[in-house]
């Protein structure tokens, strides 16, 4: 039995995490949930959206599933997501993007993985203001860049992927992105069996829309990886289908890419597939591969039934209809 920290989060978070818990019961997954609250609902009591007991739970269990947590824009508390990634040195953000048969999208041949460096770049949050001038400091280190490069190439090798594409803007940011590329190239030389290429971020964005089938594993600094993974999610039907894993040396936190969507909270129309797909990654991480494949197949079968799908996927269903349809394929 594995104990996994469960953070329901804000907005639609409690709704979609409850779906995961119920489906895991039907899977008979050997997982015990350690439920801890974080986000807006605990600020008044603890003065922070991330109380110490959340940190303690993750430190103890080493694995967590997290619902979306609201990040104030332009004011207020720093992102809980970024804080957790830095606290546990979750240096690799893994975001698979794969077309699902049956969905009405413009693409049916997308199968790529964005590997995003997760601990530095502009997400360090180093900013200052002098009079009417505001500045942000972008941090890129050789050690972090080499670390994410090894992660990307090892992932490609272990998952029989054939190519790694490094994304940069070294034509303009010659020092920071230049250092990033230098580190990636060094590691690429150690994997001669894997094709390696480099793309400037603006060209990469265009190519990803024009020819997504040409990309396999994409490795990028923090900001570029964040933007590209959202762009890629749009190719397959939106963020409601986009899972993510934040992986460190001995700790991992799994979450949906999308936000807390407070505008549809408690209306019963939230789409749980992104978080369910993140929980598939969690099962694989725990080496519960048969259960992961079973859930993956159930989701693949479910999305072919438009009547069961939520409005964001073009359906007329709700969170209950998606849940029940997935469970029917598990029985």
Describe this structure in words.
- By secondary structure, the protein is of the alpha/beta class.
- The chain has 2 domains: 1-103 and 238-331, Isopropylmalate Dehydrogenase, CATH 3.40.718.10; 106-236, Isopropylmalate Dehydrogenase, CATH 3.40.718.
- The chain is 40% helix and 19% strand.
- It has helices at 13-27, 40-46, 52-61, 80-87, 142-158, 176-188, 201-210, 222-236, 273-285, 289-302, 319-330, and strands spanning 2-7, 31-35, 63-66, 92-98, 111-117, 127-130, 133-136, 163-168, 195-200, 217-220, 243-247, 252-256.
- The protein has a 10-stranded mixed sheet with strand order 2-1-3-12-11-4-5-10-8-9, with helices on both faces.
- Helix 1 (13-27) packs across helix 9 (273-285), helix 7 (201-210) runs parallel beside helix 8 (222-236) and helix 10 (289-302) packs across helix 11.
- It is globular, with a radius of gyration of 20 Å.
- The relative contact order is 0.16.
- The model has no long low-confidence stretch (mean pLDDT 93).
What key phrases describe this protein's structure?
331 residues, alpha/beta, Isopropylmalate Dehydrogenase, ten-stranded mixed β-sheet, two-stranded antiparallel ribbon, 12 strands, 40% helix, globular, magnesium ion binding, EC 1.1.1.41, IsoPropMal-DH-like_dom, IsoCit/isopropylmalate_DH_CS
Order of helices and strands: EHEHHEHEEEEHEHEHEHEEHHH
Mean pLDDT: 93
Distance between the termini: 22 Å
Q: Looking across the biggest beta sheet, what order are the strands in? A: 2-1-3-12-11-4-5-10-8-9
For the record, the CATH architecture of the largest domain stands as 3-Layer(aba) Sandwich
According to CATH, what is the class of the largest domain? Alpha Beta
| Number of discrete helical segments | 11
Derived structural class: alpha/beta
Low-pLDDT windows of residues: none
Total domain modules: 2
User: CATH topology of the largest domain, which one?
Assistant: Isopropylmalate Dehydrogenase
Principal-axis shape equals globular
CATH superfamily of the largest domain: Isopropylmalate Dehydrogenase
User: Helical amount among residues, as a percent range?
Assistant: 40-55%
What percentage of the residues does DSSP assign to strands (E)? 15-25%
Q: Main sheet, how many strands, which sense, barrel?
A: 10 strands, mixed
What is the tally of beta strands?
12
Kindly provide the radius of gyration, computed on alpha-carbon positions and rounded to a whole number of angstroms: 20 Å
Keywords: Oxidoreductase
Family: Belongs to the isocitrate and isopropylmalate dehydrogenases family.
InterPro entries: IsoCit/isopropylmalate_DH_CS, IsoPropMal-DH-like_dom
Organism: Petrotoga mobilis (strain DSM 10674 / SJ95)
